[in-house]
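quick one
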Amino acid sequence: MDYEYDRVEVPTDGTPVEVIDEEADELDVPEDPIVPIIHGDGVGTDVGPTAQRVLDAAAEATGHEVAWMRVFAGESGREQYDENLPDDTVNAIDEFHVAIKGPLTTPVGAGYRSLNVALRQTLDFYANVRPTFHLDGVPSPVSEPGQMDLVTFRENTEDVYAGIEWEAGTDEVEQVREFVEDEMGFDETIHDGPVGIGVKPISEYGSKRLIRRAIDYALEHDRDSVTLVHKGNIMKFTEGAFADWGYEVAKEEYGDEVITEDTLWEERDGEQPDDAVVIDDRIADNMLQQVLTRTDQYDVMATMNLNGDYISDACGAQIGGLGVAPGANFGDARCLAEPVHGSAPKYAGQDKVNPTAMILSGRIMLEYLGWTDAADLVRDAVEAQIVSGEVTYDIERNREDATRIGTSEFADGVVDHIEDLA
Ligand code: NAP
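structure w/ NAP:
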């Protein structure tokens, strides 16, 4: 196969991941897949190469090999191409299906679009997935962080993030006001005077494909339940519709494999079935309480874009914060793993920050490649390193028994544990 890239080389020692069935998210993964990697801006220069080293060790220990293809975006994109998001980078992620990136800085100021949002939209990564589980030895603000083992599926392409909004004082916003008041009949709803107006699209298509993905995950990973999170009591036709479409997908596409919470109580006396996932829903504000007060009752959450942003960060705080919070974006037959944290510019290049979030994002990627043995090894090795007490500053400052080490020394320790545990 011939590839056309301007300034990056396709590794000759690897084989492309092929798609078997895009809609069914089925891939043919070789033993030596080509995987594009963006190290990222700021602390990305610390955690990117470090995570790559750890993932290599886990792959090697389990009989695989990753053929990395270094691609560029953000600052490195501007250096190499004079562009924030070069076509080479987008094409490589598109062509090789499975990729990983470090954080990218969004410069403050007019005219800069978030590169992360641009990448997600261009390649239709419609599900942002954040597994939140506690690793032994990570300090937490709650008394029993181990109760949290929750995976959030956050819709990534619509809601108020669609960017359909008009600034107060413009002709456009006045046209929208006129339409809403005169043609749609909401004549006393908007206050007089300057107003900004935004539109919140929630589609059946966008909701169902996200919720389907959450249910599939729950079934594949033996999870007990999927919770639809929404504010449908107030926004009936957007948030309420999200929940309705969720129940519809469950009923029409999964038959007995998914039962509602009502059925669970009416027909099964509340007994969790071995052979089915329970689908339920919670109002978003209640859900923020529930993850704190009844943490262990929740397994998988499906949320719209904004609710997911808030709730997954709150969950992340419960298990130790940004240094340890991994994530990944999924589309049909594609995955772009990335940590939740940003580029933390004040720590850039200091070999200081915690690489765990980036390493565990890589673990999600390994799972997606079907390398569960390598993925398990990564988790166990990271946990063993944290338990050892030799940890980065963010953990050390909240533990009395710990010694502070840098990013690369932490990764050396993780690699040693991988070799010991393999
Ligand atoms: P941030 O980079 O996530 O950093 C906020 C704070 O989180 C840091 O000051 C640090 O806390 C802690 N932190 C972050 N990463 C850590 C790590 N690996 N280990 C330990 N602690 C870590 O958020 P920000 O300062 O708001 O954003 C900076 C830039 O990143 C912005 O340009 C933003 O747009 C961008 N961003 C990118 C992404 C992405 O690429 N997906 C995501 C979010 C933000 P302490 O100061 O308490 O030590």
